[in-house]
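Dear colleague,

Following up on Tuesday's group meeting, I ran the structure prediction for the four-component complex that the binding team flagged. I've pasted the input sequences exactly as they went in, so you can double-check that nothing got truncated or mislabelled along the way. The C-alpha cells for the whole assembly follow below. Feel free to forward this to whoever is handling the docking comparison.

Inputs:
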Amino acid sequence: MTGLQGWLDQPGVTIVLVGALVGVAASLLGAFLVLRRESMLSDAISHSVLIGIVLAYLLTGALDSPLHVVGAALAGLLTVWLTDVLVRSRRVKSDAAIGLVFPALFAVAVLLINVYARDVHLDTDAVLLGEIGFAWLDVVRVGPLEVARSLLTMLVITLVNLAFVVFLYKELKLATFDAMLATALGFRPGLVGYALLALVSVTAVGAFDAVGAILFVAFVIVPPTAAYLVTDRLWRMLVLGCLVAVGSSVGGYALALSFDVSIGGAMASTTGVFLLLALIVGKHGIVARALRRRTPGPPPSILRERETGGAP
Amino acid sequence: MHHSNARVRHHVTPHPLVRVLAFVLFVTVAWSATAQAQADATTQPLAVVATTGMVADMVIEVGGPCVDVVALMGPGIDPHLYRASAGDVDRLGRADLIVYNGFNLEGQLGSVLDAVGRRTPTLALAEAIAATLVSEDQLLEGEDEFEGSTDPHLWGAVDLWGRGADVVAATIADLRPACADDVRTRASAYVAELAALHAWALASTASVPEAERVLITSHDAFAYFGAAYGFDVAGIEGISTESEASIADIRETADLVVEAGVRAIFIETTISPRTIEAVQAAVRDRGTEVAIGGALFGDAMGEAGTAEGTFVGMVRHNVVTVVTALGGQVAPWPDALSGWAEAWNLR
Amino acid sequence: MELLALFSDFTVRTVAIGAALVGAVAGVLGSFALLRQQILLGDTLSHAALPGICLGFLIAGSRRLEPILAGALVSGALAALLVLLLTRTTRIKTDAALGVSLSLFFAFGTVLLTYLQRHAGAAQAGLDAFLFGQAAALVPRDLVVLAVVGGASLLVVVLGWKELKVTTFDADFARSLGRPVVLIEFVLTVLIALAVVIGLQLVGVILMVALVIAPAAAARQWARRLEGMVVLAAVFGAASGVVGALVSASYRGLSTGPVIVLVASAFVVVSLLLAPERGVAWQLMHALAQRRSLRAHRVLVDLYRLAQDHDDLDYASEQGMLDAYFGGPTGHVLRRLERRGLVSRAQHMPEEGTHWILTGDGRRQARELLTPFGERDAAVDGATP
Amino acid sequence: MAGRALGMGGGMEPAVIGARQADGTNGSHEPAFALHVEDLTATYSGDAVLWDVDLNVPPGVLAAIVGPNGAGKSTLLKCVIGAMRPAAGHVYVFGHPYRRQRHRVAYVPQRTSVDWDFPTTALDVVTMGLYGRLGWFRVPRRRETDEALQALALVGMDAYAERQISQLSGGQQQRVFLARALVQDADLYLMDEPFAGVDATTERAIVDLLKDLRARGKTVVAVHHDLQTVATYFDWLALLNVRLIAQGPVTEVYTPEHLRAAYGPRVVLLGVGGHAPQP
C-alpha cells in the first residue's frame, strides 16, 4: 500500500494518469462521434457546459459541488437537443445549427458571470483552458489511500464510458453505420445517440479540471481520427485510439517538461504527432494513398458464379 | 540580501530525448527516489515555491541562505490569468514550502492551494497578514455583492505588507529550527527597511495637491495603496481581470476623469494598455486631455535583474511615477535604504 | 430614445461603429460559408488564430496590432489548408478535419502562450485580450484598421461577385466553365479568416463564430436570391453590432461581445419564427391547414365510398359509422364541411343520431379527389351506376 | 397468386372495404396481404410527400414500387419500418403492426445511405442482420458468424468476407446488403433501390435471387426506378406519385395510361402495353 501511495504522491504519475484517463474516456466516445460525423458537437458541448456550471453556482452559491456535473451534463444535452430542433426544422443545416447554439449559450453564461459573479473566481478561462498541472494537489482519501480528486473522477468516468462502449458495442456500431436498419430492427438509434452525447457532456465536465475544453476536444477527435487512418476494424480503431491517447499523455508530459510549457497543451499537441504518424504510415494515410495511385490497382474482380438459388 | 535575484534558480534544459528517457526512468524508480529525497532533506536549504514576485521577494529577504526560492509568476504575468508550465508543476512538487498571496489572487492555483496542505506546508501570506490585524477595517472588500471576497492586493500598503516578514520568519523557523535565529534577525531588519520605505512613500505622496489625489488604473489593484497614501482610486476593470471591461466601465471612468479634472491615468504592466487608451480617447472627445502617466506594477514586479524586480524597487517606481505624473514632489530617498540603492546603482 | 442619446457618447459610438463594421463583413462572408456548408470553418479559423497571435508577437517582439493580425491570418490560412489536405487526400470527413485542425492549432497556441509567459517577460502581458475580446477598448485608430480591412474584403467580394456566386451554387459547374475554382475557394477562405481575425479582438473567439454564422443564417430565412441574402446578412450583422453596443452600454458590467452575439441570435430566432414560407410560424400554420384539409378530404371520400357501397349516391351515413370508418371523431370536420355546403344533415329518427349526405358539390369534389390525374375518371364513373 | 391482387387501388372491391374494417386480416387466419398500407399520408414540414396512399401487397409476389423522383417511394418504406412517423394512416405487416412483426421483415436501405468507409468487414455487415434476433446487449457468436458466412456464399461473396467494405465495388456492396437481408430469413423483404449503381452481372444475380425468394414463398417489395426492366423483373407493381396511381399485377398496371398518369405525358416507353411481360 505504501508503495502505491508513494507512486500516487509523485505529481508526474498523477498528471500522466489523469491525462491518459481523459484521453481514453474521450477517444472511446470520440471514435463514434467521428464516424457519425458529429465531431464538432464535442466542441459545442465543451463550450456550452459553462452555462450549466454558472447556473449550478448561482443556485448553490458554491464553486465546487456535485451539482456542477449535473448542470454541465444537462447543458450539454440542451446543446444537442437545440441543435437537433434546429436541424429538424429544416431551416438550417446541422453545421450551422451547431454554430448557432453554442455561442449563444456561451454568451448567456458570460453575461451571467458579468452580472452576478463579477469578482468571483468563476472564469471562462478556467473552463476553456483548464490546468492538469495542479491535479495532484487536490487529493481525497479513499480507504487507506490519498488519491487526486480528478484522478478518481476520471477513473469513474472512464470506467462508465468503457462499460457503455463494451456493453452497447453492437448497438453503437449498428446505429452509427446504418441508423435505418437499426430502426427497422427495433434498436433506438436516437436514444443510443443521446446516451452517447450525454456521456460526452459528463466526460467534458470531468476533463475540464484536467485539460480544459479545447484540449478535451483534441482528445475526443484526434486519437480516433489517427486510428481511423490505420485500421479497418472498429474495435481496433477504439483500441488504437486509446493507445494514442495514453501515448499522447506520456509523450506530452515529457515534451512539456523538456520545453517547460503547458502540460495540457503539450499533451493535446502530441495527439497531432500521432496523427502525422498515421498520415505517413497508415494504410489510409497520405503516403499510402499516393503510392496506391501510382501503382495500377488490381483488375476488377471476376464475380464468382452463384452456387444456389435462381429459378431452374 | 541585496543581490536577491541571483538566487532565483535557473534551470538547464537538456535535450528533449534525454528528458523523455529521464521521465521513463523517473516513473520506474519513483518511490525509491522519494525515500532518497526525504533522507537528505534537512541539510539542504528550504526549497520554497512562491507564486508572485512580491511574495518571493519577501521570502528571499527573510529566509536568506536558509531558503532557495522560485517564483512561478514572473514579470508581466497576470496572476489572475496565470497558466502553469510543466516546470512550475515540477517545482511545486519538489517544494518544501509553498508561499502564496491568497484571497483568490492566484485564481485557479490559489483555490487549489487553499484546499491542500497535507503534502506540502503552505502559507497564504496576505491571508496570514490579515489575521494579524487588530481591526477588520484595514481589510478592503471587493466590490462584489457576494460575502467574503477580500481585495487581495495587500502589498499596496507597505506597512501592512511589512507585517508579513514575521509570519514568514516563523514559518521558516518551524520548518528549519536551525535557521530560527538567523531568519528572525533578517525579518526585523527587513521590517525596518519597509518602515523607512513606507515613511518615504507617505512623504512623497503628501506632496501631491489635494485636488490631484485621484489614481486611475487598468484594474482595481491599488485600493490598499490609495487607503495608505490618501488617493481616491478607480480601476476600469474589477479586482479580478477575468471579466472584460464593458462600455459602461470605460464611459464612467472617462466621466470621472473629466469631473475630477484628473491630469494623468496609468496603465499596468500585466494588462493590455488598450482600455486605458480607450479612456484617454473618450476623454479627448469630451474636450479635455488626460496624459498616460506611465506603467505601474500592479499585480507583478519588474524584470528580474532590474531594481524594479525587487519589492522595494517596485514600490519606488510606482510612487515616483504616480507622484511625478500627478504634480507632486518625490521625497529624498531614506538613509535606511541607501544600501539597497547602491546595490542597484541608484542615487 | 434613450438608446439614441447613448449614441452621442464617444465610446459608445466608437464601439458601435466598430461592431457594425465587423458584423457587416462577417455577415457578407458568412453568407458564402453558410451556402457552401463550410460554416464551422469560422470556428476553426477563430481558434487557429491563437498560435498565430503568439508567433506574430514573437517575431515582431511587441504587441503592435499589425504583426499580430498578420500572424493570426497566416495561422488561420494554414489551419484551413490542413482541413483541405485532410479531406481531399484521406478518408477523414469534413467535421473531423475541422475538429482536428481546431484543437491542434489551439493546443499548440496554449503551448506557445506558456512559453511566452516564461520567456518573453513583461512584454507579453495582455496577449490573451486578442483572443478573448475587448470590445469596449476600441479606439478610433482601430476603426481605421477595421474599415480598411473590411472594405478591402468587401471590394474583393464585389469585384469577384459573378465568380463567387457560381462557385457557391455549383462548384462543378463553375469548373466546367473554366473558372479557377480552387483559387476562388482559397480567396473566400482567406477573406473569412480576415473577417474572423479583425473580429477577434472585438468579441473574442467563441463569439466570433456566432457573428459569422448568425447574420447569414437569419438572412437565409428571408431572402430568395444570393444578392438579397448577402445584403440582408450585412444589415443584420451591422445591426447586431450597433444594438449590442447600445444595450451593453446602458447597463454596467455587461460585456459588449456576448450582448452582440445574443442580439444576432435573436435575429435568427425571430427570422426562424416569422420569415415567410421558411419561417416556423408560417410552416406551422401551413401544416395545420394541410392537416385540416386532409381530414376534410378523407371524410368526404369516406362518405362517397359508403354511398358507392350502397349503390345510392344520396345514401345518408350515420355519424357513428363514419367515426368508425374514419378511425376517429368526425363531428367537427362534418360541421365544417356543412358550412362549406359539401354535406348536409339528413333528418332521421332522433335516437339514431345525425346522418349525413353528400351534396352535389361534395360529390363532385370527392370524385375529383379520387381521380387526381384525370385518367381514372372513366374507371370511377364506370363503377358508378 | 396474381389473382389475389387487387385492381387499381380505386377501392371499390369489397375486399378493400373488408380490410379497412378489420386490421387487414380479412377475417381469415392467414392474412390477405403481406403489406397493407391504409390511408397513409406523410409530410415534410407541412408539405405532403405521400397523400392518402392505400397499398395492398399480396404474399408471395415480387412487387415494385415505381414512380418519378420525389414521388415518396423511399418515404413509404421509411413509414413502414417506423423510421418516419406518418401524419395519418396505418401500416400492417401480415395483419399486424410492424412493431410486432419485426422478425418477419428484412430491410435493405439504399446503398448510398451508409458510409462505406466505416471500419468494418463484409462479414460484419452481414452479421448486423442478426442483431434483431439477438436483441439488446447480446453479442453475436460462432453461430451467427456461420450463418452470415452462408448468406455471403449465397450471393457469391464468401471470398470477400474479411474485406473492408470500401474495397468492394458497388455491385459487391449491394450483394453484401442483400446477404444481410437474406440472413434474417424474413417473410417480407423491403428493398430501397436494390439495382441502383450495380453492374450487369450483379443485376442479373439479384434478379435470380429475388425469383428464388419468390419460389420459397417470400414477398419482396422493392423501390425501383428503371421503367424498362420493371416488367421483366417484377410481377406486381404499384405506381406512385405522392398519391397511389395504380396497383396490381404488372400485366394490368404497366400500361401507357397509368405510366403517363404517374410520370406525365412525355414519358417514352419501349414495349409497353403490347406484349405481356415475362414473370
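Residues 1-13, 28-37, 143-147 of chain B have pLDDT under 50 and may be disordered.

Cheers,
M.
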